[in-house]
Amino acid sequence: MTLRISLILGPVAACALALPAAAQDYCGGGSGTWIGGNQANSDIATSDTYREQLALVLLGNAHVSLFDLSSAMDVRLEAQGRGAGDPVIEILDSTGAVVGGDDDSGGGTSSAALLSLQPGTYCMNTSSYDNAPLTATVRIGQTRHEALTEGGAQLSANGGNTGGGNTGGGDTGNDGGGSMTDSGACGGAMMIGGGNPVEGSLGGGLSVTNAIDSVPTYAFVVGSPTTLSITAENQDADPVLTLTGDDGTFYAENDDFDGLNSRIDMTTALQPGTYCIGLRALSNGTLPVTVALTGYDPVAAAQALYDQGEVAPPMDGSYPITPLGTVASRSVSNAQVQGDRAQWFSLTVDQTGLLLIEAIATSNGDPVLRLFDDVGRQIGYNDDYGQGLDSQIAARVFPGTYLVALTDISGSSPMLRLVMERYVPAQ
């Protein structure tokens, strides 16, 4: 027997816990729960109000909300966590291809995305950023419907990432800028590189600097298949980057790649055509933000991920790793993180047991911990354990070598204390 539960959260808004749908597969083979309670009531294009669900996410899984569109339109998708929950959303089309996503654009830890979608069936996946248990409200609606989050309302007011843009003034960088597109989804956007096609490695790169409130959209032309990196830098503005095609195709979005700066790496070559860069400021849209295009460098990209502590570096001596030796029972080490760059430590465990790792700020720090096994799989992550800003990981480990990445997001380069304790099963 299948138990189905549904609650009413708002006018004509269906609300359901994350229960599986019928046997039919959606979005490339997955299943989910119709946002309106059933397929007929989940066509956002014909809805007179938003559709809403309560998502309960456990054990690192995702809540999948299904919805239909009977006609092309702009759709607003939001998720707002309850308590300390930090939801992340990802939107897939009927083939399973990712067409959009977001983390934190809704304001605080809430997520919000505004997408121009064609008719079809879509899935919105809501997951927990740090894999902690999550209860969240998810809402899908037209731009005329009431927004769930503050950021969602701002997306609708500003046009979000669906194209267009203010062509206001500002100080341009070394590419001169100045020219504007006059058609397509990038219509009215300021051209980077003056509209000249970018090719190959892009030489020294192209950049332009303006306040996001003045110039929220840029465009550039690709002349031949090109892999490239796009960055938006000014941590005080906290920019969010979105890359779309001039036909409205969504390619990528990023927030907080390097501190509060954003970066998109297009490792698959962009084909000739015009592309749009959309910007949103999560903090201060009046501050200058530098947007740069550079040729994608896989070595530099890997180095950047090591520096951020998000990917484990090789243990062949090519990247600095501090060895801590075998953890016998308890060890304490001091570390001072410089800027946003991670400090890496290696340790050895000689028998199966529980490994407890703590990062404690001795001053005004906010440490973050990640634990990886010897083949680079992340097996532990934590930020802000308990009621404070210190971090703690407890992981079951087996004999072998492990890597610990220690970062700090306070921006103050504090002194941190790394504490490790090992517990073995009782005999």
TrEMBL record:
**Signal sequence coordinates:** 1-23
Annotated spans, Disordered: 152-181
Q: Does the keyword Signal apply?
A: yes
- Comp. bias (Gly residues): 160-181
The entry's keywords: Signal
Protein name in the entry: ABC transporter substrate-binding protein
